[in-house]
Amino acid sequence: MAENTLVVNEKVQLEYDGDNKVFLGFWIYIMTDCVLFASLFAVYAVLHGNTFGGPSASEIFNLPYVMIETLLLLTSSFTCGLAMISLQNRQAAKVRLFFIITFILGLSFLVMEIKEFHHLTTIGDSWTRSGFLSSYFTLVGTHGLHISVGLIWMAVMIFRIKKTKLTHANIRRMKMLALFWHFLDVIWIFIFSLVYLFGVLNK
Amino acid sequence: MSQSINKSPVISKHEDERLSLKPYVYGYIISLVLTATAYLSVRHHAASTTVLVGLVVILALTQFIVQVFYFLHLGKETKPRWKLYIFFLMVSIVLIIVFGSIWIINNLNSRMTIPQQIQYLNSQDGL
Fold it and tell me: What is this structure's pTM?
């Protein structure tokens, strides 16, 4: 019996060692994604004044609207953290509930962003209008694309918890998903501050 | 079987970090306060633009650090701190890209454009 547990523990130890490598790899991916966003921020910083006779940042940004988006994303990051705590306690139903709440908040954020983009393109201020709008749509659109991918991933995990429960592989995937989701909120801090708040400030 | 493996105390020893509710709540509340401060001060234009720009940058960086530590759990890992090293590498690359680009382009702009052109561009609403 003692020998048996030893074997099991060794196996588990190996699995967790493997996991740590996967998490480190995912962390490296996230850090390189930060570099991608940094280059887009640099493009925006260079081009944000080039309005080519089109609208400037302060004319098209609706600050209260963006504030609601920010609160939605921040709260979704928090509920994602709650899902991680339930995951640690191995409470499958609670994990699922918190991921569903996170999903709804994330989806509301995405819908608001798409509505904002739709509004801008219909009044003629699309990415073809000026250098400022090209860089704005690229930066915020790339973040929106990441959010969409995160939402698809989250929907898959919500179904997997229901179907295959908290298996070792599922736990690993959910931990990476949480890391990804928190990272998207971190990027949004800078979009909110450097794009929207600065845009309204520089009249 | 898998359930009993998951609940055995041995595993928690090997897991990188034990999560607790407190860091998440702190991170959430601090982030909320910082976001609201930045938003309200800009919305009501509480100070001069220069002061507000500095304030927004400081608040954003504070919130960045708070979220990286409370949500992304950086700095909780044990000795070979690879995550932390990669994080610092990322920060240095980001600083080079962002400030390098702004510096180079502004430099080019001032070298390649004669004052009359700048005056013309400004009168043409930022070409």
Answer: 0.88
